[in-house]
Amino acid sequence: MLAFSLAEARDALRTRKISAVELTDAYLRAIEALNPQLNAYVLPTPDLARAQARAADAALARNEAGPLTGIPLAIKDLFCTKGVRTTAASRILEPFVPPYESTVTANLLRDGAVFLGKANMDEFAMGSSNMTSAFGPVTNPWTRRGDNRPLVPGGSSGGSAASVAARMALGATATDTGGSIRQPASFCGLVGIKPTYGRCSRWGVVAFASSLDQAGPLARTVRDAAILLGSMAGYDPKDATSADVPVPDFAAACARGVKGLRIGIPREYFSDGMPEEISAIWRQGQQWLREAGATVVDVSLPHTKYALATYYIVAPAEASSNLARYDGVRFGLRRDGADLTELYENTRAEGFGDEVKRRVLIGTYVLSAGYYDAYYLKAQKVRALILSDFTSVFREVDALLTPTAPSAAFGQGEKMDDPVTMYLNDVFTVPANMSGIPGLSVPAGLDAQGLPLGLQVLGKPFDEETVFAVAGAIEQAAGFSAVPTIRADA
Question: Cα-flanking dihedrals φ and ψ of residue 316, to 5°?
Fold first, then answer.
């Protein structure tokens, strides 16, 4: 039962081969068995899940099934869930229980999904390893051949990725500010899509960087991700950045093929020191697309080299503004002091972790008097140039193909001493956030140590259908069937 893809499980539920309660119980047993080892969930919700599963079975019996009726999902702990603790993996929000539901999770509930629990993550989504969580790191269910030392699952959506890879959920919600869906997807052998900025509502999602954050799904197949995005997406009048555009049938696009498409290969993504295994899988992806009928062409995105530096000005600046609301006065952790200033200092000193403090300090600095023009304003101008590059290139091609990450999953404790080295994990994913375009990671193969490697498909704004079509062709050609070492059906 745990080997089902989401689409297969949905078919089995609708034909009464299994019940929603049976399926949910199987995943709850998997969580009970594996979560102490992987720490993918910060809060399993078995009672809620079983109640939702019983309601799903009743709906199925009435032939009133929605697109996700009875499908068990993990919910990243960045999405507010009514009556269920939401922490953003931070001590400062540990006591917070939202009185409302985020729009994305409300859409999933509307379509019949079952919520298994809240998934672990980097604190306030700040990280590329899931090592910054106040509730401890998440362990990747994959291990290197002959080496059982724990690996990171990627971040910030590491709990979401690990839960799906280890068969502790059929799919998961995630968010992507600089690669936090796509990099964990690559590290865990999954499909993850960051849709166009504005495709999914940000209402009820704890903010990191408001002009960059975007919700999306993690799943085991391209079609599963398309099904989930179809439910998550949609216009929301409560979100001023939500786009009032139709939600197409993403799942139908997955098998559309790439014959006649032009796929661009941006030369700037050939970074110095790129491992040969990454280059090889990228070349293989290009060959697969040629064999499927696409034309592969060389293109240039000249301002790509500035994207990472620009991101690490814009994102911390917005974070310092967004996190100013966590002051110990209105909600969350409170540590009193002799006066208001000391209350702020005590609350934030205890409530925020080191990485969050680092980014808030950077953001406050670049927004301060005397530095705003030199850093933040200049970064916004460079951001406009990055978008202009993509706009120009997409007049010539239908989609772009790049690596997702500069390496496979690395060990817990590796690269951790140097924040700049950690930030370089986002070098291939950040440009899509800076420009707002959709990006998807699809597993394409294994490295020499048996760890998954992903390829990234970038598309035109609100053209996720073409992204899914290209990813579907790569998925079919790659035939990726490897499974992680640690999983519930092992």
Answer: -65, -35
